[in-house]
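Page 37, continued from 36.
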């Protein structure tokens, strides 16, 4: 049985490793084509270089970047618009071009909350990706972006209400906890066999470790706490083709 190709779309360098690093590593190791599009930051920045290193660890190829600025860090893309300020149609078109070029069977992105932290760039990346996955299969939309391609499924990386205990250390340091009802979860993936690679990819984002962002917080937790947080990934699946033909699933 072949493993479906997988394209992750995330807001910032490090999101791919934190939210879907296990699934990316698993699909790549099984021989699937895997890649990641990052909405903010640019090549030539420190975080762009860290992203390249993390993707290499995960087996997800080189960086693919939309080139927008982080909502809170203007120097992430000097002289360019913030993601949340850019024309929606422009951002969707840029992502459609990546979808049509890569031909993923599965696309993975943030959930509608923007994950547990609710960062505005995460929320907006969810919107852009949801629209782009639909638009990519329609020949009259963005014809300049290439021949139409329709992924079979869109998976939203999320956390269920029942995972609050695993997230409790983040709550203790003041992080928001935006979780979804358990009944919405359609894929629960044990990525513990890939935890070492996932954690190495997280640590590749050294600037985030140094400034005490999520990778830094995780690095400061006991190993058992860190493993509890990272060893399971949860997703909400949305089929983009008829249920009879939508057979692609995340590899567990």
């Amino acid at each position: 049985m072949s493993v479906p190709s997988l394209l992750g779309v995330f807001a910032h360098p490090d999101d791919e490793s934190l939210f879907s690093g296990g699934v990316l590593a698993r699909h790549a190791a099984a021989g699937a084509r895997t890649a990641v599009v990052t909405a903010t930051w640019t090549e030539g920045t420190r975080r762009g270089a860290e992203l390249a290193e993390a993707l290499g660890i995960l087996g997800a190829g080189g960086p693919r970047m939309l080139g927008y600025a982080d909502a809170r860090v203007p120097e992430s893309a000097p002289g360019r618009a913030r993601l949340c300020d850019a024309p929606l149609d422009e951002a969707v078109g840029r992502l459609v071009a990546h979808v049509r070029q890569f031909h993923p069977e599965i696309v993975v992105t943030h959930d509608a909350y923007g994950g547990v932290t609710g960062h505005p760039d995460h929320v907006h990346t969810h919107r852009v990706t949801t629209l782009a996955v639909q638009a990519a299969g329609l020949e009259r939309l963005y014809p300049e972006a290439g021949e139409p391609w329709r992924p079979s499924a869109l998976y939203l990386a999320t956390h269920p209400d029942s995972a609050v205990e695993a997230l409790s250390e983040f709550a203790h340091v003041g992080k928001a906890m935006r979780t979804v009802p358990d009944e919405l979860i359609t894929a629960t993936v044990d990525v513990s066999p890939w935890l070492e690679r996932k954690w190495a990819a997280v640590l590749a984002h050294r600037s985030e470790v140094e400034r005490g962002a999520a990778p830094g917080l995780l690095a400061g937790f006991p190993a058992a706490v860190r493993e509890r947080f990272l060893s399971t990934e949860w997703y909400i699946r949305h089929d983009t083709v008829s249920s009879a033909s939508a057979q692609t699933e995340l590899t567990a």
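The longest helix spans residues 120-135. Flag for discussion at group meeting. The two ends are 13 Å apart (CA to CA).
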